[in-house]
C-alpha cells in the first residue's frame, strides 16, 4: 500500500513538473498551455496510482490484475488530446511540438505515479531544455537556409506567377507560398499578403530583385526577412 503522504507528494510533484512545461508553452502562445499540461500530468499520475494501489485486495494486499493495463491506456488515449492541438493551414502544420509535450507529460505523470522520480525529473529537465534552447538553435542555425520574402499586392490573376518567374530569374528556389489577409476582399480590388519561403543562392543580390519586383503591376510593398525595401532602393 502507498501511504497517504506519498500519494499526495506524487500528485503535487506531477502538478509542478507539468506546470513547468506548461508555462513554456503558455509563454509561446500555444494551443495547450499551463492548465492543460498540469491536468494531463496530474491525471496520468492519478491513473498510475489507481493501477498500482487501487486494485488490491483489502485483506492480503494482493493485486487483482496487471497494474500496467490501465496505465497503458493513457499512452494511446493522450493521442486524441494531442490531435486537438495540431492545426493545418495549406502546407503548413503547427502544434506538433505541443502535442508531443502533452504526450511526454503523460509519460512523466505515469513515472511519478509509479515512484520513478529520477526518470520523471530528468525527463522534465530535458523537455524544458528542448523547448527553450533547441528552438533558439533551430531559428539561428537550421532555418537560416530558407529566407522569407513577403509581398503586399493587389489580388489580380497571374501576379503570383509573375513574381515566381522573377524569383526564377534570380535562381531562388520556392519552398512554400502562403497567402494571408485575403478574406473579406473581392477579386478585383482586394489586397493580399503573399509570403514566399525561398532558398537563396550564395551570390544573391537582393537590391536588384527589388528593383524589378516593383515593376510588376500590383505590387505595393515587399520585405526580405522583415526588412522593408521600398521601390526607391
Provide key terms for this protein.
7 strands; elongated; 2 domains; Alpha-Beta Plaits; alpha+beta; single chain; two-stranded antiparallel ribbon; 53% helix; 233 residues
The amount of helix comes to 40-55%
Shape call: elongated
Spell out the helices and strands N to C: HHHEEHHEHEEHEE
Low-pLDDT parts are 182-187
Instruction: Give me the secondary-structure category.
Output: alpha+beta
The largest beta-sheet arranges its strands as 4-5-3-6-7
User: Compute the gyration radius: what is it?
Assistant: 26 Å
How many helices?
7
Strand content: 15-25%
Total tally of structural domains: 2
Number of strands: 7
Q: Provide mean pLDDT, rounded.
A: 78
Largest sheet: 5 strands, antiparallel
- Measured between the Cα atoms of the first and last residue, the distance is 76 Å
Amino acid at each position: 500500500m502507498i501511504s497517504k503522504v506519498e500519494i499526495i507528494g506524487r500528485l503535487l510533484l506531477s502538478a509542478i513538473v507539468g506546470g513547468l512545461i506548461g508555462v513554456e508553452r503558455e509563454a509561446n502562445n500555444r494551443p495547450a498551455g499551463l492548465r492543460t499540461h498540469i491536468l494531463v500530468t496530474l491525471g496520468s499520475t492519478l491513473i498510475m496510482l489507481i493501477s498500482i494501489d487501487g486494485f488490491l485486495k483489502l485483506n492480503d494486499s494482493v493485486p487483482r490484475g496487471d497494474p500496467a493495463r490501465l496505465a497503458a491506456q493513457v499512452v494511446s488515449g493522450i493521442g486524441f488530446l494531442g490531435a486537438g492541438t495540431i492545426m493545418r493551414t495549406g502546407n503548413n502544420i503547427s502544434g506538433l511540438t505541443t502535442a508531443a509535450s502533452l504526450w511526454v507529460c503523460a509519460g512523466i505523470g505515469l513515472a511519478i505515479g509509479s515512484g520513478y522520480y529520477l526518470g520523471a525529473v530528468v525527463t522534465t529537465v530535458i523537455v524544458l531544455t528542448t523547448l527553450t534552447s533547441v528552438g533558439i538553435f533551430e531559428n539561428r542555425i537550421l532555418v537560416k537556409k530558407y529566407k522569407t520574402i513577403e509581398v503586399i499586392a493587389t489580388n489580380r490573376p497571374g501576379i503570383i506567377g509573375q513574381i515566381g518567374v522573377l524569383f526564377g530569374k534570380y535562381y531562388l528556389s520556392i519552398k512554400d507560398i502562403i497567402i494571408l489577409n485575403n478574406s473579406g476582399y473581392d477579386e478585383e480590388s482586394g489586397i493580399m499578403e503573399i509570403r514566399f519561403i525561398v532558398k537563396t543562392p550564395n551570390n544573391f543580390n537582393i537590391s536588384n530583385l527589388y528593383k524589378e519586383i516593383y515593376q510588376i503591376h500590383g505590387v505595393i510593398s515587399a520585405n526580405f526577412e522583415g526588412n522593408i525595401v521600398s521601390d526607391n532602393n
